[in-house]
Every structure is written in structure tokens, then in C-alpha cells.
Amino acid sequence: MPLFKNLSAYDDRSARLAGIALMVLSIFMFSFGDAMGKFLVGTYSVGQLLFLRACAALLLLSPLIWRQRHDFFRLERPWLQLLRVTLSTLEVAAFFVATVYLPLADVITYYLAGPIFVTAMSAIFLGEKVGWRRWTAILIGFCGVLIALRPSAQTVSLPALIALGGSLSFATLMLITRSLRKTPDIVMASSQFVGTFLLGAVLSVYHWVPPSPGSLVIFALAGCISVTALFCVNRSLKLAPASVVVPYQYSMIVWAVIFGFVVFGDVPQVATIVGAAIIIGAGFYIYLRERDLGRSDAQVNPPA
What we know:
The protein is mainly α. The protein has 13 helices and no strands.
């Protein structure tokens, strides 16, 4: 926490770069946690995964929740907070439901449509300036997504639509997080896990498999990784505009290919590799463009 607090003292350009670095780190941790989740849903239900993962996360967060308990009674725009938790819960559930039926890299690739939604909505609803160069780079990145997906009647399935719905929820969640930047990090993180805890508790009633000690360790580790990743992504969105940092979730496809091959034996096809190369190239261009812009007219709202 002190590290995240100290980042508020950075100048505007440094804040943007720190926000990008935190987003990249959070994506790696989310990808690692996603791989563990896909491994677990091979044996346990999605509801059980959500429930036990959230239990571990809330236990880890409990000292901070108690220490900052008064912040939970002074929330800005409570209804928007509730919408944020709902979207977060639906996004996580949609992701793990999709991984039951699709390879991890495929699900991640569907989620890469998120920056397209974020860029459009950040310009319309948040008033963030998005120039034609970034629009072009993100559209090129989306072309990379299409190449990797190889759209056809076979790929556009119900699990794929569920993943795309989760991607839209994730993009909206990012924008709401940006607009609620005065909300303390502990409130944002813990409320998201409360949402998955409640949904998981309801769903796991219908299908509960007694977990082995080894599985409990993986459940706990998945929860702890998610906590750290959430703090990173929330702080990232407070340091820099959503349209700047969110495109870095493109790196998810790289980790998905690596974890998919190492853990599940999935060998990426040539189209996936070509698409990933285009996506990464577009992401690096956006980074370089933002670095140049940050020298002259960077404007970052300070974190809470």
C-alpha cells in the first residue's frame, strides 16, 4: 500500500508510465490466476471456484478492511458502486464459464475486444481525448484479434458469446473504476470479491465437490494473486486515463499462449501467433505515442 500511495507524488508523465507498468504487471498476475482457475474448473464447478477463491481473498484483505472500515460508510455514488460490483461479478463468472468449453488462449482473445469498447466509451462518457493515431492503432490491434480468432460459424458459439459479453462487462467496469477514482482501493477490491463470494455461494449449493488439500492450496493462491492484481489495476486506472492503460491487456494473449502450452498442452496455431504479433505491435505503438504526448500535455487526475 505505501508503494501505491507514493505513486501519487509523481509528475504527470511519470504517473502515466507507472500506470502502464502496473497494468502490465496486473495482466500477468490475472493470466496466471486464470490458468489456475481453468485447471480447477476441470474438477470443480465455476460456483465453487468463485466461492473459495473469494474466501481466500477476503481473508487476506480482512486486516485492511477492518483498519479502513469507516471508508465503507462514505461511498461516492453508491448505485454506481453497486453497478461496478455487479459487472465485476458477471465478468469473472463469464470468463470461467467460457474456459470450461474453450482453450484459455481463445477466451483471452475474445476478451481482447475490450479495448475497443473502452476507447469508444472513454471518449463518449469520460471526455478523454483519443486521437486518430490511437484509434488507428487499436483498430489494427483488433484486426489482429480477428486473425487469431479466424471467425466462422464454428468459432462464434455460445461460449464465445459468453466470453464477448464478459469482455463488454470488463470494459464497462474499467470505465466505472476510472470515474470512481476517489473510492479507496480497499473498498474497490474487497467489494468485487464480496460479489463473487455471494454468487459463488449460491451456485456452489447445486454442485459441491469436496476439495483435496492440494486443490485448497491452489484456490487460496488464486485468491491471493487476484487481490494483488486488483490493487495494481485499480491504481493503474487512477494514475492514467483508461484509454491509455487498458490497451495493455493485449499482453494477456501472450501469457495465455504460454500457460496454455505449459499447463494444458495447447499448441497455438499460426493464425494465433500472427494475430498476437499484430496486437503486440499495436500496443507498443500506443505506448510510444503516449510517452511522446506525456512530454507536453499529459493530464492525470491524482489518485485518492
